[in-house]
Amino acid sequence: WILIGGPPCQAYSLVGRSRMQNAEDYRKKRGHDFSEDHRHQLYKEYLRIVAVHAPSIFVMENVKGLLSSKHNGARILEQINKDLHLPRRAISAKPCRLVSEELEYELFPLWKPQAKDLLSETTNQDYIVKAECQEIPQARHRLFIVGIRKDLGLTMVHMERSPNTICAWDVLKDLPELNSTLSKGKEIGWLNYIKQFCRSEAGHWTHREHPRVYEIIRSTLCRMDKQLTPGGIAVAKQEAVELPKLSAWFGTAEMPVALNHESRGHMPSDLHRYLFSSAFAAAYEISPKLRSFPPSLLPAHKNVNKDTGEAIFDDRFRAQCKNRPSTTITSHIHKDGHYFIHPDPSQCRSLTVREAARLQTFPDDYLFCGPRTEQFRQVGNAVPPYLAYQIAKTVNSILKR
Questions:
Q1: What residue ranges in 18-117 does DSSP mark as E strands?
Q2: Interval 350-380: pLDDT, tens
Q3: Contacts for 288 with CB less than 8 Å, ≥ 6 apart
């Protein structure tokens, strides 16, 4: 049998470590600091299950930050690898009687290591799987360790990299077009407010500094002759629309509606930022940093220099590019849509739950329940299902051998 899972990642993720270390002085006043965070040791709960139940194979997943994470000066991953190799020596647990006391695992990366010479050994970097190399329309890099019980004599089978790249627009283009609502409920003014961009101070600055971006915005606004709907729990699909890539996996043809396809309400001040960001991404195939924004669109934030656009978080507004895999869909998407701006300037909004789910490769008939913030959290916390399917096929090949 196979164990699949991973310990909580907050203590290992780059974002989580940054937040906790910045708050170190605060924590010291309360009797503990970042180095004493109990979540560094939660991998031992995963280890305990391995030690007690002795699965034939285990697949452990975690964030890329585990490679560089340290605890009390020592690299966490090296300790985890050592413990996973001989789990019963590492932890005191009552073992399963069906397996000998000396439980030993061989550890492998999912991808075959890219050896530079015959003497090369597996490095920590070899454990990183890049989802965009497995036909996932998203740049998502995660660490996977495969453990095979040594006494079973099973041979590792590595997952093959795909030569095909699937971009964000490849899986979003068939979904019904939406506009957002305004966060204060004034829906009537949405289109009028968008069309004010070219006459605004931001429009004049863009025309002077980024003429390509301005032309995309101008031509987009000329085509926007009606206000769309903000969507809903089930939105009728458009007729005669080209099916997306991975349509067989999504089950697109069988679904007459798009589920969980409802836009957020946005502050009026953010609409022009979203329009500028998506047009910039369309012009240059890269999301703009704050230093590229018109000064009048810079957020009133203490970490942003209004004169230069320099900021601690320079990519505070991140538009997805049509012709590239999306950025990583994370649970942060439940807080706001600034990091997940739709690539189509005419829609001028952040992604819906369904669009985020498409980028994560959830099938179209998967209905997310609960408040919308929780739906976003469910999407962002998941391993992409199509990647999980490929991993399952790989592990199944090991058993078949």
A1: 57-63, 70-71, 74-75, 105-108
A2: 999 999 999 999 999 999 999 999 999 999 9
A3: 276, 277, 280, 281, 317, 319
Q: Strand 57-63 to strand 2-5: parallel, antiparallel, or no bridges (unpaired)?
A: parallel
With residue 46 as reference, give the H or E element that holds it. Answer: helix 43-53
- Give me 342's structure tokens: 């739709």
Nearest-angstrom CA–CA distance, 322 and 282: 7
Burial class of residue 188 in the structure, from the number of CB atoms within 10 Å of its CB (0-12 exposed, 13-18 middle, 19+ buried): exposed
φ and ψ of 40, to 5 deg: -60, -30
Pair 319, 341: CB distance under 8 Å: yes
Separation CA 136–CA 177 (nearest Å): 23
Instruction: Please tell me the distance from the alpha carbon of residue 313 to that of residue 291, in angstroms, as a whole number.
Output: 11
Instruction: Kindly state the tokens that stand for 158.
Output: 């590595």
In tens, the pLDDT along 22-43 reads 555 546 554 545 455 555 577 8
Cite the DSSP H helix spans in 224-367: 247-250, 268-284, 353-359
pLDDT tens digits, 62-92: 888 877 776 666 777 888 888 999 998 887 6
129 pLDDT more than 60:
yes
What are the backbone angles phi and psi of residue 218, rounded to the nearest 5°?
Answer: -60, -45
CB 61 within 8 A of CB 142: yes
Under 8 Å between Cβ of 164 and 246: no
